[in-house]
Protein 1
Amino acid sequence: MIQISDPIELKKQMRPLGSIGFVPTMGALHDGHFSLIKKSLQENEKTVVSIFLNATQFNNKEDLEKYPTSFKDDLKKLEELNVDYLFAPEFIDMYPDNYRYRVSEDKFSKTLCGSSRMGHFDGVLTVVLKLFNLVQPNKAYFGEKDYQQLSLIQDMAKAFFLDVEIVPCPIVRTKEGLALSSRNKRLSNEGLLKAQRFAKILQESKELTEAQKKLQEEGIKIDYLEEIGSRRFAAVEIENIRLIDNVEK
Ligand code: AMP
């Protein structure tokens, strides 16, 4: 696996490659990430994975500082999977402008996760556009776990005529139904059980009001719980850790 941290060097190396599949991540990799990477390995000649803990999408300093990292283990796993390139830049590499320039969306990004995390999606869209410009992928893989993010990236690709196919990938869950997430690593055993009950309530409640009542009974703090179209979305806080999930109704 070739490891690169310099954006310009990366761009140079990408140009002569065949079809490129790209999986952007923030590290602390788990089976959810690996499902995207495996799909990319199957569908493309070369696969590029990025690990970049994107500070601009965090509106809460403590949340950023406590975000789990496991770079050495991630590296080992990516080698085992036969990933072709790992791009792991530093903040200054990705933001030589110190975030003076940014992409923003005016509507959907202000709802759900965007309403409680000010500027979150500006950070996401900006870094994804930068990464696309560097990697120049034919296909880029995103999990339905972050459904709002996936949808905003699909719309951005259309809005800016980007030459990339956005490939949605299904949510990978534990056998108890909890969506895998890097943040789960911060939960205590008790917190983990609560998180499993959160997933179960979200999936099994017939009505939103029923879900709301059950979450409250569990003492789970709700950030939002909403249905849009045929999908139910929720963000909650367990042990001060923000977890999101969504299910098809
Ligand atoms: P993150 O490192 O959390 O930014 O996630 C990187 C990519 O992996 C995003 O496209 C996520 O939606 C995706 N992802 C994270 N967790 C899961 C999961 N449990 N199932 C499927 N995709 C996931």
Protein 2
Amino acid sequence: MPQTASHTAHAKVILFGEHSAVYGGPAIALPLEGLTLTATSRPSAGPITLESAFYSGPIGAMPQSMAAPAVALHKTLEYIGAPFDGLSIRVEGMIPAGRGLGSSAAVAAAISGALAKSYGVALDGDTAFEFVQAAEREAHGNPSGLDARAVITNTPIFFRAGNVDRLPINLDAVFVIGDTGVSAQTRSAVAAVADLLRTEPQRVGAAFALINTHTETAVEDLAAGRAAVLGKRMNSVHEQLRELGVSTSTVDALVEASLTAGAFGAKLTGGGLGGCVLALAPRDRAVGVADALRRNGAVSAWFLDANIDSVSCVCDDHPRHRPEPI
Ligand code: MEV
């Protein structure tokens, strides 16, 4: 008999390596533990039902837009050997969808984790990853595994080819995240880069090579607290992402606004074609950068302080601009 149980997954932000990670390049991601969503599963009669902002009803009738979490749900129940009835699942949280912050992976992780807990099953890290990754495959075709790893890991990670290492960070600076408010499908952005790779392999190869070098060398900068150097790397990687065609004028405007307000550097984060901008700011400029982002159209801004200690990141949404709930 299943029990009532909840599981929370957090958002993530990619510092370096989006898109190149799809082709085996390294990437660095940070957990946004202040930005979460929670699934709660409760015993209930009849077929399993889901309640969320996007869909409420029996899982057998879920629309195509819910196909990815449905995959995580099915895989988890099969793994547990549990029936497809006797539960209702409610998903709620504050991770905005389609902004490159890992909402699709977090929904899958929260549902899968809640179901497993309802049946008293502990999922090990690789199994939890596998279910989220299966959902990500449904969501955007060819995921690197970066998002699936990042939303179930509570530390900054260095990611390469599916594997993760915990990443020490010792920065006296603050990351500021600005949300363009524009939803974008990672699937389209990944497909656009794949098309460009087919037609202009040299151009794309050169961009990936530069991004990979920045990602690898950033590891030491993060440990040694070289914020200004990291900022330059972020600017350079943003240029390469522009080359790959995944930035937009709205994203570029927020990058520019961050730099004008005194950020060390800024770039798009996640799949692009909308979504969020990540800036790195001196501690005394962080609020100014967030304000500049908002003045230039960001619908939300969050702060991520990576200097609590080497593993813990704190994320606060700004009280004036809370994101819409999922
Ligand atoms: C999306 O958050 C990150 C991408 O690199 C896709 C992936 O790694 O699967 C664009």
